[in-house]
Design goal:
81% of the residues lie in helices and 0% in strands. By secondary structure, the chain is mostly helical.
Length: 218
């Protein structure tokens, strides 16, 4: 919680991550919404996929900054010397990154509904269950890979190359849940995909908690 509060306080002072992710995502959604002829149904049909691709690439930008502050002046070493289990460092980073993702996604949700002709409140409970579960899996995997690449050359390229293939289950599950939610599907239809997203979350949270102390030894 101390790490979470520290990251949240720094973000409130600078607004670097949330503002960057929100502006980037808004531009992507706007460009895609004008990519076809007026009156075409193609953007509306592709909207859930466009939304999750936007979340994914914006999330990679956010994860790229997860340990940026700790890279300066040996702060990462000082963090690892703190009198606590290193697994707690992992969980703190997961919480702060998840909070940043959820804030910018909440700001983007009404914009998505307006641009693509969907009601922001229709199926919102189902949609946000899928978004939150997808975010948890994405963050659990992304934080551990961000720690792996913290000192790598060209880490801005290495992180997406490692993360994107492994996040395919999150992308597919998230798109299916959003599609069912905005087209009038109920919980029954979405539960299969929600269950798969939850299983993905459990697997990578456990693996991340176990592997993070080993990763940061190097």
């Amino acid at each position: 919680m101390a790490i979470f509060r520290k990251d949240l306080l720094l973000e409130m002072r600078g607004g670097e991550v949330v503002v960057t992710l929100t502006v980037f995502s808004f531009l992507v959604l706007t460009v895609f919404s004008f990519s076809t002829e007026p009156g075409s149904q193609a953007p509306k049909e592709m909207a859930p996929g466009i939304l999750w691709i936007t979340f994914l690439f914006a999330g990679i930008l956010g994860l790229g900054r997860a340990f940026d502050r700790e890279r300066e002046n040996g702060c990462f070493t000082g963090l690892l010397l703190a009198p606590c289990d290193r697994m707690q460092v992992y969980w703190g980073k997961c919480l702060s990154t998840l909070a940043f993702l959820l804030i910018f996604q909440a700001l983007l949700w009404p914009v998505f509904g307006i641009l693509y002709g969907y009601s922001p409140v229709r199926g919102m409970a189902t949609a946000w269950t899928g978004i939150i579960l997808g975010d948890v899996g994405f963050v659990a995997l992304g934080v551990i890979l961000s720690a792996v690449t913290i000192h790598a050359r060209g880490r801005e390229m290495v992180l997406p190359l490692l993360l994107l293939p492994l996040c395919l289950p999150v992308l597919i599950g998230g798109v299916r849940v959003i599609t069912l939610a905005v087209t009038g599907g109920g919980w029954a239809e979405a539960m299969t995909w929600i269950g798969r997203l939850a299983a993905f979350d459990v697997i990578f949270l456990v693996l991340g908690s176990v592997l993070f102390p080993l990763v940061v030894e190097e």
